[in-house]
Design a protein that fits this description.
about 60 residues, mainly alpha, globular
């Protein structure tokens, strides 16, 4: 769906990092290096990014209106 505003475990704000992460991964940078550069050092925060599936475009096809 949408990346959470804060990490579910530790509460660190992470949503503002998602677009930068996606852009750099698309350019071919290693995921671990990007997360280190963005300051995502805790396992819980890294898991939010690695396990996230961006489905907002798929879901928006089914909105009422």
């Amino acid at each position: 769906m949408i990346i959470p505003i804060r990490c579910h475990s530790c509460g660190k704000p992470i949503a503002q990092l998602w677009e930068e992460y996606k852009r750099r991964i698309a350019q071919g940078e290693a995921s671990a290096k990007v997360m280190n550069d963005l300051g995502l050092v805790r396992y819980c925060c890294r898991a939010q990014f690695m396990g996230h599936v961006d489905l907002i475009d798929e879901i928006s096809k089914f909105k009422k209106g």
